[in-house]
Amino acid sequence: MEWRQQSSVSCKDAFTEAQRWIEEVTGKSFGCSDFRSALENGVLLCDLINQLKPGIIKRMNRLSTPIAGLDNVNVFLKACGKLGLNESQLFHSGDLQDLSNRVTLRRDESQRRLKNVLITIYWLGRKAQLDTFYSGPQLNFKAFEGLLGLALSKVSCFICPFFKTI
Fold it and tell me: Taking every annotated instance into account, which residue ranges of this chain make up the domain Calponin-homology (CH) (predicted)?
């Protein structure tokens, strides 16, 4: 996909906007400046989707273990599917894992995985904006143009199979 070739500089706005939106919707702070670390336990993501669609996630795992975090991320991704996001719009549950201590890690692999997370946040934000029952903070889609590429940002002119007319 075209977005994978975008530079990390063009994604800075998307990271900033995603954090702002998540914090405003949930009413909770990231608690750190590292995007991945703030989301890796899945609690903020579960809180986010429960604010968008109350009760869609019945319970979260509050233990501070990697397995609990993976469980929460999987629950979040499953809830995204229930809201109508398709598999191509979802990141992989392993995309939020800390890869900093892996010797065989490709230089851009960690950044690529975080871009996958941003893609999901983008689509979730679009879904929220189109939900007539949601009246909370809106995601600024223009901040994602550098990440998604110009072609995808023009999707607002068309009828998407997953969303109402935009």
Answer: 12-129
Tens-digit pLDDT profile for residues 58-95: 999 988 888 999 999 999 999 999 999 999 999 999 99
Handedness of CA 109, 110, 113, 118 (dihedral sign): negative
What does pTM read for this prediction? 0.80
Q: Within a 13 Å sphere around the CA of 80, how many CA atoms are in the beta-carbon half?
A: 27
- Please report, for the chain, the start and end positions of each structural domain, with discontinuous segments joined by +: 10-153
Q: What would the two tokens of residue 125 be?
A: 């934000």
